[in-house]
Design goal:
This protein is an alpha/beta fold. The protein has ten helices and ten strands. Strands 2-1-7-8 form a four-stranded parallel β-sheet, sandwiched between helices. A four-stranded antiparallel β-sheet has the order 3-4-5-6. It is globular and about 55 Å long. The structure holds zinc ion. InterPro entries: Cys-tRNA/MSH_ligase, Rossmann-like_a/b/a_fold, tRNA-synt_1_cat_dom.
C-alpha cells in the first residue's frame, strides 16, 4: 500500500447483454468510493474489466455453447461485434449516471496469454491439475478457501453441486482452463490443447497485470462473493503467495417489486426505461 495512492479493481460488465440498473447500482457504489477517496486527497487508479469470453458455466455448456456465441449466431454478427455493441451501451449508461470512466477497461479476450501464464504457474506450484484436457484448481492446496464467503462444509458443497464433474478430485475444485468441445469456434491454443478460460481466472490475471500482486480495493456485486471472488483469491494467492486484496466491497442486490432484480425474475429495468418513465438517470444516482 502506497500512502496517497489507492489501487482499485471492479468486476465489470459481461458484454452479451444490457446492464440493468441493479448492475449499474454496483458500479455507482464503486464510483462513490473512488470519488470519496479522491476528495480525501488520494490518487485512485481504477481498473474495470470487460468480460467478453463467456462464462464457463455448466448450464451453458449443457446448452451447447455460451450466450455470447448464441447471441452472435442469432443476430448474424461476429462475437467481437456483439461485445463492442454491448460495451458501447455500458459506457453510455455509465456516462448517463456520471460514473467516472476507469483508467483501463481490459478486455478478457485480449488477455488470454496472461491467463495461461497464471494457470502455468499454478500447475508448477502444484495448485492445479489436468484431467481430460481441463485444468482444475486444487482447492485442497489452499488452506484458507472459503474465508471470504464464510462458505465452508455443507453450504459450500451445496453451492458446487450444480457443477458436479466426475473429472474433479474434489467437488469444490473449479475450472481454470476448459478443453474445447468439437465444433467450438471461440478457442485458443494452450500447453494443454485448444480450449478457453474458466470465468474466474480473467480477473486474477488482469488484476495482476494492471495492479500487481496485491492491491487495495476490489468491488463487485454480492453475487460475485461466491464462487467468483472466493476462487479469485485462491488463484492469486496460490500463484503469488501474497495477500491478493486488502479490502473487498460488495454491492447488495437491488430489489424491484420486492424481489432481486434479475432477468430470470422478469423485473429488470434499464437506464432507458427510467427515461421513458420521465426520470432523469441522474435521479437514480441520488436515490439509491
Ligand atoms: Zn471478476
Amino acid at each position: 500500500m502506497t500512502p496517497g495512492r489507492v489501487t482499485m479493481y471492479t468486476c465489470g460488465p459481461t458484454v452479451y447483454r444490457y446492464a440493468h440498473i441493479g448492475n449499474l447500482r454496483t458500479y455507482l457504489m464503486a464510483d462513490w468510493i473512488r470519488r470519496i477517496l479522491t476528495a480525501d486527497g488520494n490518487e485512485v487508479y481504477h481498473i474495470k474489466n470487460i468480460t467478453d469470453v463467456g462464462h464457463m458455466r455448466q448450464e451453458l455448456v449443457e446448452a451447447g455453447g455460451d450466450k455470447m456465441i448464441m447471441a452472435a449466431l442469432e443476430e448474424g454478427k461476429t462475437i467481437q461485434e456483439i461485445g463492442e455493441f454491448y460495451a458501447d451501451c455500458f459506457w453510455r449508461d455509465e456516462t448517463h449516471l456520471n460514473i467516472l470512466p476507469a483508467h483501463v477497461f481490459p478486455w478478457a479476450s485480449q488477455h488470454i496469454p496472461e491467463m495461461l501464464e497464471m494457470v502455468g504457474t499454478l500447475m508448477e506450484k502444484g495448485s492445479a491439475y489436468e484431467a481430460g484436457g481441463n485444468i482444475y484448481f486444487d482447492v485442497n492446496s489452499y488452506a484458507e478457501y472459503g474465508r471470504l464467503s464464510n462458505n465452508f462444509g455443507g453450504d459450500l458443497l451445496e453451492g458446487v453441486r450444480a457443477e458436479a464433474d466426475p473429472l474433479k478430485r474434489d467437488p469444490r475444485d473449479f475450472t481454470l482452463w476448459k478443453a474445447a468441445e468439437p465444433g467450438r469456434d471461440v478457442k485458443w491454443d494452450s500447453p494443454w490443447g485448444e480450449g478457453f478460460p474458466g470465468w474466474h481466472i480473467e480477473c486474477s490475471a488482469m488484476a495482476h497485470k494492471y495492479l500487481g500482486e496485491r492491491f487495495d480495493i476490489h468491488t463487485g456485486g454480492v453475487d460475485n462473493v461466491f464462487p467468483h471472488h472466493e476462487d479469485e483469491i485462491a488463484q492469486s494467492e496460490g500463484a503469488f503467495g501474497n495477500r491478493h486484496v486488502n479490502y473487498w466491497i460488495h454491492g447488495q442486490h437491488l430489489l424491484a417489486d420486492g424481489a432481486k432484480m434479475a432477468k430470470s425474475a422478469g423485473n429488470v429495468f434499464l437506464i432507458e426505461d427510467l427515461a421513458t418513465r420521465g426520470f432523469n438517470p441522474l435521479a437514480f444516482d441520488t436515490c439509491v
